[in-house]
Design brief:
It contains 22 helices and 14 strands. By secondary structure, it is an alpha/beta fold. Strand 10 (about 465) and strand 11 (about 470) form a beta hairpin. Helix 2 (about 15-25) runs antiparallel to helix 4, helix 3 packs antiparallel against helix 4 and helix 5 packs antiparallel against helix 8 (about 120-140). The chain is elongated and about 85 Å long. Bound molecules: zinc ion.
C-alpha cells in the first residue's frame, strides 16, 4: 500500500466497472424488470428470465464500461450513462415509453415548451433515486492510475469477460429469452442505457446522408389544369394538420360523448383513417410525401413534398405553425409561426391556443405573391391540438365541457376519468377551432374572394392508459390502434364543389372507406386540379366523385365552366 492511496482512496477500474454495471442493470432498469415480471408465465420462467436477462444486461454494460475505463474518461462517461438511465427510467415508468431511434429523434427535435410539459415532481425524485448513489461514489473516488499498456490489456480483458457473461447467460436461458424477445420487441428498447446509445448512433447516422444527397425533385411537370383558365374565384384550400387526436374520442365517429358539437352540415367525416407513424416527426412528413408508408414515406424524406409540387404548379402556399415546427415540410415555402405572438386570451408563456393561427390570417395571405395568390392558395395549419401530457392547457378555461379534469403532467397520478376529461376537452377545442376556421373560409367564399375547402387530418393518435401506455410513439408495428386510428373531416364550399366536380353527397359516400395518410398527397393534387404524372388517381379519395360527376353531369365538369 502506498501513502498516496491511503490519503486518497481510489478504485481499481475493474471494481468500479462491475459495481456500476450491477447498479445500472438493477436500479437503472426497473421498468424493464417490471415488464419482464409481468410477461413471465410460471415462477420458474420468471426466475430464468429475470436472472438470465439480468446477467445479459450486466454483461453488455460491463463490456461497454470496460472499454471506457480510463482515468480521465471513465467519470464523465459513467456520469452521462447513469443520468441517461435515470431519465429514461422516469419516462418509461410515467408514460410507458420506450427509447427507440424515432423517440430519440423526437427528443433531439423537441422544443422548450414540449420539455416543460413533460417535467413533473416525479422526475427529480426518480433521477435522485437512480443516479444519486452511484454519482456520489464515482465522484468521491478516482480510478487508480496505471500505465497505458497494462491498462489497455485489463480493459480488453474486462470487455471480454463482459462478453462471456452475456453469451453464457443468453445460452443458458435461450429458450425463454428468445421467445420473450420475439413476442415483445419493445423490450429491446427498454434496456438502459444501451437503448439510448443505439438510438443516438442511429439518429446521428440518419443525419449523414442528408448533407451528401441532393433533394430529389418531385412532379417537375406540375402545371395547373383547365379549371384555372376562366376562374371567377381562385380556390383556397385549408389543410389542418391535427395533433394527437385519436379517432376513438371524436364525436363524429360515434364516441359516447359529443366532443364535436360544432360539426355542421356539409362537413363530411371519414371514420376509417390510419396514420403513417405514431409520432409527429414521422407522420407529418409522411402526410405530405409522394411515397406511401410502405414505399418509405415514413423514412427521413430525401425528396420534395406536396407543398413543393403545388408551388411549382404556380399556386401560393403558406404554412402556419402552432407547434414545434413543420419537420422540414415547409422548408421551401412561405411559413410563419405563432411562437412570438402575444395575443391576450390566446397566448400564454410562449404557447398559443390554435385559434391564434386565424389572427391576422387575411393579412398574411394578402402578403403572399400576388400572381400566385390570384391563381389559388393552399394553406396549412399545424395545430397544437391535443398535444400531451398537459391536455388541460389545450382548451381555454371557458371551453371545458368535461370536468373535473386532470391538471397534472404525471398522467398515471390522475384518476383515469379525469385524464379522459382533459383529453376530451382538447378534442372539443379542436372542434371549436375547426368551426372558427370554417367561419373564416365561409366569409372568404361569401365575399367572393375565394372558392374554399378544408381537409382536417390528425397526425397520430394517443394512448390514455390502455394497456398501461400513455402518450404515443410506440414503434408502428406494435402500436395499439389508439395511436394509429385518426380522425379526418372534409368540407367544400358550393363553388369549390362546382369547380372540382366533387359533390358533398358523393363525398359522404366515401366516409366509411379505409383511408390513410397515403391519400393526402394525391387527393390535394386532384382537388386543386394540379396536373402531373406523380398524381396517382388510385390514391386520390376524391377522384371517384370527380369522375362520377363528370359522367352524370350532376355537377358541371370544370372544363365546361
Ligand atoms: Zn404529433
Amino acid at each position: 500500500m502506498s501513502g498516496t492511496r491511503l490519503s486518497q482512496p481510489s478504485w481499481r477500474p475493474a471494481t468500479a466497472v462491475w459495481l456500476l454495471s450491477l447498479w445500472l442493470a438493477v436500479a437503472g432498469n426497473l421498468p424493464l424488470w417490471l415488464r419482464v415480471n409481468e410477461l413471465a408465465g410460471t415462477p420458474a420462467q420468471r426466475l430464468a428470465l429475470l436472472g438470465g436477462f439480468g446477467l445479459v444486461v450486466v454483461g453488455v454494460t460491463a463490456a461497454l464500461l470496460s472499454l471506457l475505463a480510463w482515468p480521465r474518461v471513465f467519470r464523465p462517461v459513467a456520469t452521462a450513462l447513469v443520468l441517461v438511465s435515470a431519465f429514461n427510467t422516469h419516462f418509461m415508468l410515467q408514460y410507458g415509453a420506450v427509447i427507440d431511434p424515432t423517440m430519440m429523434a423526437n427528443i433531439v427535435q423537441t422544443d422548450a415548451r414540449e420539455v416543460r410539459d413533460l417535467i413533473s415532481w416525479a422526475l427529480p425524485l426518480t433521477v435522485l433515486l437512480v443516479a444519486g448513489l452511484p454519482l456520489w461514489v464515482i465522484w468521491r473516488r478516482p480510478l487508480a492510475m496505471r500505465s497505458w499498456l497494462p491498462q489497455t490489456g485489463r480493459n480488453a480483458l474486462g470487455a471480454l469477460v463482459g462478453g462471456v457473461v452475456l453469451v453464457v447467460a443468453t445460452l443458458v436461458t435461450y429458450q425463454d429469452l428468445a421467445s420473450l424477445m420475439r413476442n415483445h420487441k419493445e423490450l429491446r428498447y427498454m434496456v438502459n442505457p444501451v437503448n439510448s446509445l443505439y438510438a443516438a448512433v442511429r439518429v446521428a447516422a440518419d443525419q449523414l446522408p442528408k448533407h451528401v444527397q441532393p433533394l430529389k425533385l418531385v412532379g417537375e411537370d406540375a402545371r395547373l389544369g383547365t379549371s384555372y383558365a376562366a376562374q371567377q374565384k381562385p380556390p383556397l384550400l385549408m389543410v389542418v394538420v391535427g395533433e394527437t387526436a385519436r379517432a376513438q374520442n371524436f364525436g363524429l365517429n360515434g364516441y359516447a360523448r359529443n366532443t364535436t358539437p360544432a360539426a355542421e352540415e356539409g362537413l363530411v367525416n371519414f371514420s376509417q383513417v390510419q396514420s403513417c407513424g405514431t409520432n409527429t416527426k414521422v407522420s407529418v412528413p409522411c402526410m405530405f410525401s409522394p411515397l406511401t408508408r410502405t414505399q418509405g414515406g415514413d423514412q427521413t424524406p430525401e425528396h420534395e413534398n406536396l407543398l413543393d409540387v403545388l408551388q411549382r404548379a404556380g399556386l401560393a402556399v403558406l404554412w402556419i405553425d402552432n407547434q414545434a415546427g413543420c419537420k422540414g415540410v415547409c422548408a421551401r415555402v412561405p411559413n410563419a409561426s405563432t411562437l412570438n405572438l402575444k395575443l391576450p386570451g390566446l397566448c400564454d408563456g410562449g404557447e398559443c391556443l390554435d385559434p391564434a393561427m386565424l389572427e391576422g390570417l387575411d393579412a398574411r395571405i394578402a402578403a403572399l405573391d400576388p400572381v400566385r395568390r390570384a391563381r389559388g392558395v393552399v394553406l396549412v395549419m399545424h395545430q397544437m391540438g391535443s398535444h400531451g401530457p398537459a391536455y388541460f392547457k389545450r382548451a381555454s378555461p371557458d371551453r371545458k365541457p368535461f370536468m373535473p379534469e386532470c391538471t397534472s403532467n404525471t398522467l398515471s397520478d390522475c384518476p383515469p376519468e379525469q385524464l379522459v376529461n382533459a383529453y376530451d376537452n382538447s378534442v372539443a377545442y379542436t372542434d371549436h377551432f375547426l368551426d372558427l376556421s370554417l367561419q373564416w373560409l365561409k366569409a372568404r367564399e361569401t365575399s367572393g374572394t375565394n372558392a374554399t375547402g378544408l381537409i382536417y387530418m390528425s397526425d397520430h393518435g394517443e394512448s390514455l392508459g390502455e394497456k398501461g401506455l400513455y402518450l404515443h410513439g410506440v414503434p408502428y408495428a406494435m402500436a395499439p390502434q389508439q395511436q394509429t386510428h385518426v380522425p379526418m373531416v372534409a368540407w367544400l364550399s358550393p363553388s369549390m364543389q362546382q369547380r372540382s366536380g366533387v359533390g358533398v353527397d358523393c363525398l359522404r359516400a366515401q366516409g366509411g372507406k379505409p383511408l390513410s395518410h397515403d391519400n393526402l398527397f394525391h387527393s390535394v393534387l386532384g382537388l386543386m386540379d394540379v396536373q402531373t404524372q406523380v398524381h396517382d388517381v388510385a390514391l386520390d379519395f376524391l377522384a371517384p366523385c370527380a369522375a362520377a360527376a363528370t359522367q352524370t353531369g350532376k355537377v358541371k365538369p370544370p372544363s365546361a365552366n
